[in-house]
Amino acid sequence: MSPVVASYKKHTLIFKKPAGTSRGRLREKTVFFIRLADRRRSNRIGLGECAPWPGLSLDDRPDFEAKLAAVCDALNRGHPPEEMDLTDFPALAFGLEMAWRDWQHGGIRQLFENDFSRRDKTIPIHGLIWMASPADMLRQAQHKVSQGHTCLKLKIGALDFAAECTLLSDIRHHYRPDQIELRLDANGGFSPEIALERLSELAQFQIHSIEQPLKPGQSQDMTKLRNHSPIDLVLDEELIGVTTQASKRELLETIRPHYLVLKPALLGGFAAAEAWIALAQELGIGWWVNSALESNIGLNALGQWISSLNPTTIQGLGTGQLYTNNIPSPIRPTQGALIYDQTLTWDVSTIVA
Fold it and tell me: If one looks up domain 123-352 in CATH, what number appears?
């Protein structure tokens, strides 16, 4: 008999205000929480979050919920989680890995034993600037700096390019490179024909790096761009759907990016992301982790996992305050870092009810 009773609950996260991205404005996000209840101890419940990203995740497909139901049924029949092939369902794989690890550690939301989960260590995070008018984005940047952030990430490629350059100039007028690190994310917004020209113009603002200047699937063009770019290049969406070790190696050895951005919800969980990290370290490629707009359930798991890896770069986990109906938790940002606040407690009643 299976040691757990598996079920799931659908939940819609509501943004406090519409979040502007290159794929449109987000007002809500649907997630699924996997619940693994102990057959013998009713108060021991492991929780995991499955959050396919519309238009981006491999498992953004009509049969996702049916697959999730089938996975829960298999678990209830005693099928071991580690033997399930969820290659085509990375968000589901991540949620299951999260729930199983939580259950194994007592169902108390402590998935990893480290200084962060013991509430002794913080994780430096960048301040994410959402797409809006240039004036509003500048106000966002100033607010993030006032909150203690020393690294800002800005989405570009959707507004008028001249206006984006003016915005970056304004930010640099206020903050020197030794004060604020600027990371850009183009989300594939440049064509191969103009990308190098765009990056050359952006370089005057002392940019740390730029994510995915070209759309995925253009490895030859990305390689040429990497060889001539005055700004370090980062792969993000390019990693989605690359699942075998051989194909991962081929991609990285071909493009030789400077950094990788890893989102376990899009890659298939912690183990899948760690495979990318091991290969990146072998090839001298840097990395950091971004959340995929998870609730505090997923954000907590990401924070604990990242802390176990002892990262040396600023991470992208600054999305925990986005929602009106997030899961109350001890996870919160403060002074440019993510912390596990000892004065706060978990309230998962809306998930387990």
Answer: 3.20.20.120
Q: How far apart are CA 351 and CA 353, in angstroms?
A: 6
Q: What is the mean pLDDT of residues 234-257?
A: 97
- For tokens 């990285």, the residue is 252
CB proximity list for 163: less than 8 A, separation 6 or greater: 134
Point out the residues that are catalytic.
Answer: 155, 263
Which residue type is seen at 139?
R
Answer whether residue 18 shows pLDDT above 80.
no
Quote the pLDDT of residue 22. 60
Residue type at 84 in one-letter notation: M
Q: Are 322 and 18 in contact (CB under 8 A)?
A: no
Cα torsion at 336, 295, 71, 7 (round to 10°)? 130
Domain 4-104 CATH (choose: 3.30.390.10, 3.40.630.10, 3.30.420.10, 3.90.1150.10): 3.30.390.10
